[in-house]
From TrEMBL:
Residues 6-108 form the CinA C-terminal domain. It comes from Chryseobacterium formosus. SUPFAM superfamilies: CinA-like (SSF142433). InterPro entries: CinA-like_C, CinA_C. This is CinA family protein.
């Protein structure tokens, strides 16, 4: 299992220019985003920690996801992921949070589709939310790695955008 070291380095460097922090709330990525952040240089300066929930019951109990939403959307939706991220920001007292929830194997609740919803929050507000879909059902670990890398790439893009906006003195 190898992470894109250049991607991790660039995320770490973006955090080293400021005093901001990040946390993770994940499900389908199975802790890989937390591993990725723990592998970054100087991560103790900006990575506050993370939580991995694997069942809807734990998402409700630990991340305060609305049970009605879980029932309405068969456990997975952008709203649920966004709620996970906002609450994890509060739990870990972090500036940024990345959240993910989805499927890496075809299952009945997902209509046998493979996808992940993910969100990126800043100061408790969702700044980006999206869904990745895959047709490949080959190997769940490779799918988790794929999700992790794509989400981290998008996160890096949001970090860079934030720096541009902040340096131009535009209020976010």
């Amino acid at each position: 299992m190898d992470f894109n070291k250049e991607l991790l380095k660039e995320i770490s460097e973006n955090f080293m220019v400021g005093i901001e922090t990040v946390s993770i709330a994940e499900s389908v990525t199975g802790g890989l985003m937390q591993v990725a952040f723990s592998e970054m240089t100087n991560s103790k300066l900006f990575y506050k920690g993370g939580i991995t929930v694997h069942t809807p019951e734990k998402a409700v109990k630990l991340l305060k996801v609305d049970i009605a939403e879980i029932k309405n959307y068969n456990c997975i939706s952008s709203f649920i992921t966004e709620s996970m991220g906002r609450h994890a920001c509060r739990i870990f007292e972090s500036d940024w949070c990345i959240a993910s929830y989805g499927y890496c194997t075809p299952e009945r609740p997902s209509s046998y589709e493979i996808f992940v919803y993910y969100s990126i929050s800043y100061k408790g507000n969702v700044v980006f939310s999206d869904k990745l879909e895959l047709l490949d059902t080959s190997d769940s670990l490779n799918i988790k790695l794929f999700y992790t890398e794509r989400i981290l790439e998008k996160f890096l893009g949001q970090l860079k955008l934030y720096r541009i906006v902040k340096n131009d003195n535009i209020v976010v």
